[in-house]
Amino acid sequence: MCENDSIEKPLVSIITPCYNAEMYIEETIQSVLAQSYENWEMIIVDDISTDRTFDIIKGYMKADNRISCFQLKQKGGASIARNKGIKESKGKYVAFLDSDDKWKSDKLMKQVLFMETNNYLFTYHNYELIDEKSVPLNKLRMAPASITYKRALIGCSIGCLSAMYNQAQIGKIEIKRLDKRNDDALWFKILKKAQKGYLLNENLALYRIGNQSISSGSKLKLLKYHYKLYRNQDFMILTSLFFTCTNVFVYFWNKRSEKAI
User: Where are the domains of the chain?
Assistant: First the structure.
């Protein structure tokens, strides 16, 4: 529930793409069930998992009708899964939570209150890091106080698990297929309509990271994914290369700037 009873309690649609997530999907769902804000729907989109992911989700669907799951007919990756989730969503607000991440129990309550009170169209917050076993790494990733579309092009440090936008005013968003950095493509589209995004300066979620060592091959792939992100925005080759360089610089700068907690 919101702290202020005079604030409307609109429906929030939570979009969760998943693929072979049997190790973590229960923790993710349980973090949604633990929310103090209760007016939500959780739309899970399964990208043809080959493990027990869908069976686990079905158990939660039987226990709580706010949880639903759609299975893609052919493999499409996280971008296509998010598109499907947004298409099926009914909420005034849309929030994003990947299948291995978790929210703190007051995340939705605080973020909805923040948006309703200030009439913001797009918001995000800080979040902390955990490892594959959910052990806290005592590191906090900070986001900028505000961000515009042009600023996001240079380098975007909005965590997918932290973002929420006003679908009632912005409308449904759809992006081209992109296997990596597809969340940035979402923020670009949203910011074009919202004009500006705003930080709720609190730590409200837990982001799971695996092995963070980056090989030379991985660095080349990182460059390729960023370049494709900008080409998908219909930028020319030189412009895409420029933004690729600035974005990779910001990516590594943000990692070095993680705050100890």
Answer: 12-211
Question: And the tokens for 219?
Answer: 């660095």
Q: For the whole model, what pTM was predicted?
A: 0.90
Question: Where is 67: in which H helix or E strand?
Answer: strand 67-71
Tell me whether strands 93-96 and 67-71 are parallel, antiparallel or unpaired. Answer: unpaired
Q: How far, CA to CA in Å, does 74 sit from each of 80, 81, 86, 97, 146?
A: 10, 10, 18, 22, 37
Contacts of 199 (CB under 8 A, 6+ apart): 123, 124, 125, 126, 143, 144, 145, 146
The yes-or-no verdict on residue 43 having pLDDT over 90 is yes
pLDDT in tens, 179-225: 778 898 999 999 999 999 999 999 999 999 875 433 344 667 777 87
- The helix (H) or strand (E) run that includes residue 239 is helix 237-256
Q: Which two tokens stand for residue 239?
A: 């412009």
Q: Which pLDDT score is estimated for 220?
A: 72
Round to whole Å and give the CA distance between 15 and 141. 22
Architecture of domain 12-211: Alpha-Beta Complex (3.90)
Compute the average pLDDT of residues 173-184.
Answer: 86
Looking at residue 216, its pLDDT comes to 40
Instruction: Report the greatest alpha carbon distance in the chain.
Output: 54
Distance CA 131, CA 102 (A): 12
